[in-house]
C-alpha cells in the first residue's frame, strides 16, 4: 500500500484549504440563517466543493472516495459547517440516489444538489428504532400514482436548511427487513411536518419528522421493499464522510493545542518544555495518524466508484470515534481553563466529535458487526422468542 498522496491529491487539499480560509470561512456566522446558508452552499458549488464523488453525468465531479474525504476533512478544519455541507452534498443521503436512482431521479435531485440549489436530509431513526433500525414502523402504501406515508422519524439534521428528506420506510407487510425501502419526500408535501428542533451538544438542531397521510408521487420512490441491505451498503460511504469530519475536528484541535503549548508560558518557560505536555502531544499525534490511516484504507479500497467494505468502515468508526474524543479532550486539558471556555474553539470541537460515538451506528453496534465478521457468523441482538 502506498501511503503517499499523489500530486493531484496534494493540490486538491491545498486548493480546498485556500478557498475555505480565504473565501468561505468569512461567510460563516455563529448562527447561520437559512438565507446565509443557502448563499454559502451556492458559493461552495461555484468553487467545485459539492458533489465531489457524485457522477459527472449528473453534475458531480466523480472524484474517488478518498479524495472526497480529504476535501471534507480539510473544510471541516476550516469551519465545521463547511465540512458538514461538503459531506451532506457528497457522501450524504444523495449517495443512495446516485447509486440506485433512475436517470430521471438523478437529474431531478443530484444535479441541483451539486449546483447548490437544494439539500437532502436522511430519516432513518425512530423512537423505537434506533440501533435496531429494522424495527422501524413508518409505512408507505402505494395508492394509484402516489405512495402514502404515515409514521415518525427523529434526530434528523439540517431539515430547516434542506428541501427534501430521504425517508426509510416499510413498503410491504411481512414485518421483516425486506419490507424496507426509501422515498424522497419534499418538505412542502401536504401531510409532512416537523418539530422546531432540539439542540444537541454541538448546537445543531435535530428534528422530529411527522407523516400523516403524506402523499408523495410514486416516481419519488427511490427503491422499494428488499432494499435495506442495499441502502446500508451506500450508507457506509456516508459513515466515512462523518468519520472524516471527526478527523478534521480532531486535527484542528491538535494543531491549536500544539501552537498554544509553544506560546503559553508558566514557570518562566513554554509549557511545551514540560515532559507531561510533550507526551500528551505525542499521543495525540499517534492517534491522529492511526485514525487517518484506518479511514483512508477503507476509502482507498473502495476504489474510484465502488462501495467501502463494511468491516473496514466499522473498524475506522470505532477507532476514530474514540481517538477524536481523546484528542479533543487532551487539547482542552493543555489549554486549561481557557480550553474549557466557549471563547476558545475546543469545547465546540469536542461536542462535535462526541456525537460520533452515537450517530451512524453506535460504537457498540459497530463492535458487534466487527465481531460477526471476524467470527464469520451472524450475531443477532434480538431477544429470542
Average pLDDT for all residues: 95
| CATH-defined architecture of the largest domain | Up-down Bundle
Shape: globular
How much helicity do the residues have? 40-55%
CATH superfamily of the largest domain: Butyryl-CoA Dehydrogenase, subunit A, domain 3
User: And the CATH topology of the largest domain?
Assistant: Butyryl-CoA Dehydrogenase, subunit A, domain 3
Structural class: alpha+beta
Major sheet characteristics? 5 strands, antiparallel
H/E series: HHHHHHEEEEEEEEEHEEHHHH
Total of domains: 3
Question: Which CATH class of the largest domain applies here?
Answer: Mainly Alpha
Detail the poorly predicted runs: none
Strand residue percentage: 15-25%
How many helices? The count is: 11
| Rg result | 21 Å
Q: How far apart are the first and last residues' alpha carbons, in Å?
A: 47 Å
Properties at a glance:
11 strands, 385 residues, 11 helices, Butyryl-CoA Dehydrogenase, subunit A, domain 3, Butyryl-CoA Dehydrogenase, subunit A, domain 2, alpha+beta, 48% helix, single chain, 3 domains, Butyryl-Coa Dehydrogenase, subunit A, domain 1
Describe the fold and architecture.
This protein is 48% helix and 16% strand. With 385 residues, it is of the alpha+beta class. It has three domains: 7-114, Acyl-CoA dehydrogenase/oxidase, N-terminal domain (Butyryl-Coa Dehydrogenase, subunit A, domain 1), CATH 1.10.540.10; 120-225, Butyryl-CoA Dehydrogenase, subunit A, domain 2 (Beta Barrel), CATH 2.40.110.10; 229-375, Up-down Bundle (Butyryl-CoA Dehydrogenase, subunit A, domain 3), CATH 1.20.140.10. A hairpin with a 2-residue loop joins strand 2 and strand 3.
Amino acid at each position: 500500500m502506498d501511503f503517499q498522496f499523489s500530486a493531484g491529491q496534494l493540490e486538491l487539499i491545498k486548493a480546498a484549504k485556500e478557498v475555505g480560509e480565504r473565501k468561505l470561512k468569512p461567510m460563516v456566522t455563529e448562527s447561520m440563517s437559512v438565507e446565509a446558508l443557502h448563499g454559502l452552499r451556492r458559493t461552495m458549488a461555484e468553487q467545485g466543493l459539492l458533489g465531489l464523488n457524485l457522477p459527472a453525468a449528473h453534475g458531480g465531479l466523480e472524484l474517488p472516495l478518498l479524495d472526497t474525504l480529504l476535501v471534507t476533512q480539510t473544510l471541516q478544519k476550516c469551519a465545521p459547517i463547511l465540512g458538514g455541507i461538503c459531506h451532506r452534498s457528497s457522501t450524504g443521503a444523495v449517495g443512495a440516489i446516485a447509486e440506485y436512482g433512475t436517470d430521471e431521479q438523478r437529474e431531478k435531485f443530484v444535479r441541483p444538489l451539486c449546483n447548490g440549489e437544494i439539500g437532502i436530509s436522511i430519516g432513518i431513526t425512530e423512537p423505537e428504532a434506533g440501533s435496531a433500525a429494522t424495527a422501524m414502523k413508518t409505512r408507505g402504501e402505494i395508492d394509484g400514482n402516489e405512495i402514502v406515508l404515515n409514521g415518525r422519524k427523529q434526530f434528523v439534521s439540517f431539515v430547516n436548511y434542506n428541501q427534501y428528506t430521504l425517508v426509510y420506510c416499510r413498503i410491504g407487510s411481512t414485518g421483516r427487513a425486506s419490507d424496507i425501502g426509501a422515498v424522497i419526500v419534499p418538505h412542502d408535501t401536504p401531510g409532512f411536518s416537523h418539530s422546531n428542533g432540539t439542540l444537541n451538544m454541538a448546537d445543531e438542531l435535530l428534528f422530529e419528522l411527522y407523516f400523516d397521510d403524506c402523499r408523495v408521487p410514486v416516481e419519488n420512490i427511490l427503491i422499494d421493499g428488499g432494499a435495506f441491505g442495499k441502502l446500508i451498503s451506500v450508507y457506509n460511504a456516508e459513515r466515512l464522510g462523518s468519520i472524516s469530519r471527526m478527523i478534521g475536528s480532531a486535527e484542528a484541535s491538535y494543531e491549536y493545542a500544539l501552537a498554544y503549548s509553544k506560546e503559553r508560558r508558566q514557570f518562566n518557560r513554554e509549557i511545551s518544555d514540560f515532559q507531561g505536555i510533550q507526551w500528551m502531544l505525542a499521543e495525540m499525534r499517534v492517534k491522529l495518524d492511526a485514525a487517518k490511516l484506518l479511514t483512508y484504507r477503507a476509502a482507498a479500497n473502495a476504489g474510484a466508484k465502488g462501495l467501502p467494505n463494511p468491516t473496514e468502515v466499522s473498524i475506522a468508526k470505532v477507532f476514530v470515534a474514540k481517538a477524536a474524543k481523546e484528542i479533543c479532550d487532551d487539547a482542552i486539558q493543555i489549554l486549561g481553563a481557557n480550553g474549557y471556555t466557549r471563547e476558545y474553539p475546543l469545547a465546540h470541537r469536542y461536542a462535535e466529535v462526541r456525537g460520533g460515538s452515537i450517530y451512524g451506528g453506535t460504537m457498540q453496534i459497530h463492535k458487534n458487526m466487527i465481531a460477526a465478521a471476524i467470527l464469520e457468523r451472524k450475531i443477532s441482538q434480538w431477544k429470542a422468542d
